[in-house]
Amino acid sequence: MRFFIFCYSTLINYLPDILTYPDMTALWFEQQREIEQDNLTVNEFLDGIEKFIEEQLNQAENIKIEAKGEPCECGKGVLVLRRSEKGSFFACSAYPACKITLSALNNAPITE
Ligand SMILES: [Zn+2]
């Protein structure tokens, strides 16, 4: 049970809001009472949660995180600040499809 609680509190930081809704917690609490009353087995309970989390993870894979920044010449991405051993530079967020890079000066791209 301790392991499960750890997983749940860790997942809360990464999964969609639906997992943090009080309804969800209430449902799981209710199911734990069902277990106490022998109306539900621990495995059935955990299978249900596992299936639910799997569905949530599948949905999370389809979420695209949009980068903010100056639009790139390619029209597909934006210029985002990257750091390398040689210093900072700007690269297109559409990399590897677009390999445009620009030098950076004071965290701003140098355009000529
Ligand atoms: Zn680009």
Secondary structure layout plus pairing:
Elements: H1 2-11, H2 22-36, H3 42-61, E1 70-71, E2 78-84, E3 87-92, E4 101-105, E5 108-109
Bound molecules: zinc ion.
Zinc ion (ZN) is lined by residues 72, 74, 76-77, 92, 94, 98, 100.
Give the cofactors and ligands: zinc ion
Largest sheet: 5 strands, antiparallel
**For the terminal residues, how far apart are their CA atoms?**
60 Å
The number of helical runs is: 3
Features:
112 residues; alpha+beta; binds zinc ion; five-stranded antiparallel sheet
How is this structure best described in words?
This protein has 112 residues and is α+β, with helices and mostly antiparallel strands. The protein is 40% helix and 20% strand. It has two domains: 2-61, no CATH class; 70-109. The longest helix has 20 residues, at 42-61. A hairpin with a 2-residue loop joins strand 2 (78-84) and strand 3 (87-92). The protein is built from three helices and five strands. A five-stranded antiparallel beta sheet has the order 1-2-3-4-5, with no helix packed on it. The chain starts with a helix and ends with a strand. It is rod-shaped. The chain binds zinc ion. Zinc ion (ZN) binds at residues 72, 74, 76-77, 92, 94, 98, 100. Zinc ion (ZN) is lined by residues 72, 74, 76-77, 92, 94, 98, 100. InterPro entries: Topo_IA_cen_sub1, Topo_IA_core_domain, Topo_IA_Znf. Pfam families: Zn_ribbon_Top1. GO terms for molecular function: DNA binding. Keywords: DNA-binding. This is Topoisomerase DNA-binding C4 zinc finger domain-containing protein.
Task: Report a brief summary of the structure.
This is Topoisomerase DNA-binding C4 zinc finger domain-containing protein. The protein has 112 residues and is of the alpha+beta class. Helix content is 40%, strand content 20%.
